[in-house]
UniProtKB/TrEMBL annotation:
One of its GO terms (molecular function) is oxidoreductase activity. SUPFAM superfamilies: NAD(P)-binding Rossmann-fold domains. The gene is HSD17B12. Pfam families: adh_short, Transposase_1. Keywords: NADP, Oxidoreductase. The keyword Iron-sulfur does not apply. This is Very-long-chain 3-oxoacyl-CoA reductase.
Length: 371
């Protein structure tokens, strides 16, 4: 019986060498094989003729198989780690480690996920600073929270699409207040998904993504973090999107803006975790809200904002990056696994799905505009 050993020297150097060595243990000979020779030809190795099939044994094919296997292993770990986090480990107490006497700032807080963060933080006895653009909705939300949870609220009117001057006003309003938690939820979306060049109100939409989805993250963190650093404690929750974790055709700029949130938050967490500050990125998929009019009723993969936020708050102090909701982790893991197996198929399937969403939302938008 002959045993063939393959080690690092057996493969071509990255300098572009077209030859690699094979060691025939049986004959004690080292021979060179030209890997640029046609793979469907017969090669003479160790005194015998051996057939090397391009489809089966080409080094490129082997390397690709190894990479695919590794990606699938990572995908499997992605799903199983979250089963452990969500189902087996006790729920986090990250927010309870910080005195609820400290105030909590929530941006984009009058609807959907942002409003639920404000409500559920208030339910813990925290005093809430509400920041949004509609004074009417701010007053209604503040009244609702104060009556139901018996906490104090403060409202700050700010339209994050207007630019720099709003941050001067926010800074003055919170200047002498101790902020324990910042929830950066404010964000904008398309009227309906579409191809990049076909985006409705292109200039306005793109500026909105930059100012509201990106700039607000940077500047709100800049306003609140110094006090947290001084007190050596604090929690920052930055809302991203699952579109940052998977390919998102027809949502190209929105997905890219949320990828910024993800990258920014992960790096910020590394910088300030040793100073007692938790920075978490939350990347939800579909949740029932004003931004997802195509979701008519809740489901396991499209939960209500209340159900979603309850789950997401349970991850604070456990993970620094999460979808916040286990079924959404399953969706992201599934898409990434399909992409690892066949990027071409995943791209085709995602494009077809998003085109279907576009057609439905565009029709609904046009019908609403005619009313």
């Amino acid at each position: 019986m002959s045993i063939r050993q393959v080690n690092g020297s057996s493969w071509p150097h990255i300098t572009g060498s077209s030859m690699f060595d094979t060691l025939d243990v049986e004959h004690g000979q080292r021979e060179e094989v030209d890997i640029e020779a046609p793979f469907d030809s017969s090669l003479k190795v160790g005194g015998s003729t051996r057939s090397w099939s391009r489809g089966k044994h080409a080094p490129q094919t082997i390397a690709k198989s190894v990479l695919t296997h590794n990606k699938l292993m990572i995908c499997a770990w992605w799903d199983w780690k979250d089963i452990i986090y969500y189902e087996l480990l006790p729920r986090a107490h990250g927010l309870q480690e910080y005195e609820c006497g400290l105030r909590m700032v929530v941006t984009g807080c009058t609807d959907g996920i942002g409003k639920e963060y404000a409500r559920q933080l208030a339910a813990k006895g925290c005093h809430i600073i509400l920041v949004s653009r509609s004074m009417y909705k701010l007053e209604a939300t503040a009244h609702e929270i104060e009556n139901e949870y018996k906490v104090n609220t403060k409202i700050i009117k700010a339209d994050f699409s207007e630019g720099d001057h709003i941050y001067e006003n926010i800074s003055k309003e919170i200047e002498n207040l101790e902020i324990g938690t910042l929830v950066n939820n404010v964000g904008v979306f398309y009227d309906y998904p579409d191809y990049f060049l076909d985006t409705k109100d292109w200039e306005k939409t793109m500026n909105g993504f930059i100012r509201v989805n990106i700039e607000s993250m940077i500047k709100m963190n800049n306003l609140v973090l110094p006090g947290m650093v001084k007190r050596k404690r604090g929690v920052v929750i930055n809302l991203g999107s699952a579109s940052a974790l998977v390919p998102s055709p027809l949502l190209a700029v929105y997905g890219a803006s949320k990828a910024f949130v993800d990258k920014f938050s992960r790096s910020l967490n590394i910088e300030y975790s040793r100073r007692g500050i938790v920075v978490q990125t939350v990347n939800p998929s579909n949740v029932m809200s004003n931004m997802t009019p195509h979701i008519k009723s809740s489901s396991i993969f499209g939960p209500t904002a209340k159900r979603y936020v309850r789950s997401a708050l349970g991850t604070v102090g456990v993970v620094s990056r999460t979808t916040g909701y286990f079924p959404h982790d399953v969706l992201v893991g599934f898409v990434n696994c399909v992409e690892a197996i066949s990027e071409r198929f995943a791209s085709w399937a995602l494009l077809k799905w998003f085109e279907g969403v576009r057609d439905k939302q565009k029709k609904a938008y046009q019908n609403k505009s005619m009313i």
